[in-house]
Design brief:
alpha+beta
Length: about 170
Amino acid sequence: MTTTPAPAPQQLGVRLLPATAAYDYERWQVSLVTPGLLLGAVAVALYRLPLLAVPAGADRRGGSMDMTDPVFAEALVRALWGRPGFDRLTLFDHVVRWGEPLPEGLTSDGRRRFHGLRKRPRLGTCIRPPAGHGGRDPDAGRWPPVPGSPSGQQPAPPRVVVQVGAALTP
């Protein structure tokens, strides 16, 4: 029997990666009024989760990132220092801000414009799906089927019942 080596201990800290490595890159790409700002953006990896830091510029007057801990926030300030679009870096507890300070009393629409974000499309009214579609009605997926339910509306019965742990024995 071979054993796999234990994984290397995870390094704590903040790392800057290419912007496209960020988990939320596509969301920012469709949300920004000026997607060209992504050329100066960086992915900020805290532990193993890279999130996007988008610089100020064009329609975006400022940005911020919550780092969960003041130590990581200080590390992010050091990492972003001197990068174009990340001027006027400020640190408040565990939140790093750059660009112009966010004015007091802005409406949600004003905050969206300050951060250079597109207006979100308004979603239509919720339409109730037809009965028996297999969606959110309480009997959907119920086994055994509800007496009198039409065929094809219930899941197929399990083909084989396997005892828990049986698959683990050779």
